[in-house]
Amino acid sequence: MKQAQEFQKKMKKIQDELKDKTVEASSGGGMVTVTANGQQEILSIKIEPEVVNPDDVEMLEDLILAAVNEAKKKAEELAKNEMKKVTGGLNIPGLGDINIPM
After folding, report:
1. Where are the domains of the chain?
2. Over the stretch 17-46, which tens digit does the pLDDT of each residue have?
3. Contacts of 44 by beta carbon, 8 Å cutoff, 6+ apart
4. DSSP string of 22-49?
5. Which residue ranges of the chain lie beneath pLDDT 50?
6. What CATH number does the domain located at 17-87 have?
7. In this predicted structure, what is the pLDDT of residue 20?
């Protein structure tokens, strides 16, 4: 029981720390950059002015979508790697696919 409580404390600590860790992803050769934290919250989106073209809004939408999806993927990987530190790489059912909602 005590080990389970320790495990829960460690998991909670990692989840809290993930709020302060960030990942960055970009698309269009750096024209759109998205920063997210380890809990998959989007913190910022930066768009270079030269990519803003009123005649091609669809391209900008695609660049934003690509950067957001890549940032989400990187945040998921960060969370999984941090959780592995607690589990020691063990395959514990229910923890292998931790998905922290955006």
Report:
1. 17-87
2. 999 999 999 999 999 999 999 999 999 999
3. 34, 35
4. EEEEEETTTTEEEEEETT--EEEEEE-G
5. 96-102
6. 3.30.1310.10
7. 94
